[in-house]
Amino acid sequence: SKVSSWIFSIAYRMCLRVIKRESHRGNVLQILRLQPRTDSAEFESQLTDADLLARAMTTLSASHRMALTLAYYEGYSTEEIGRIAGCPTGTVKTRLHHARQKLRHYIEQHAS
Question: C-alpha angle with apex 83: 82 to 89, nearest 5 degrees?
Answer without folding.
Answer: 25
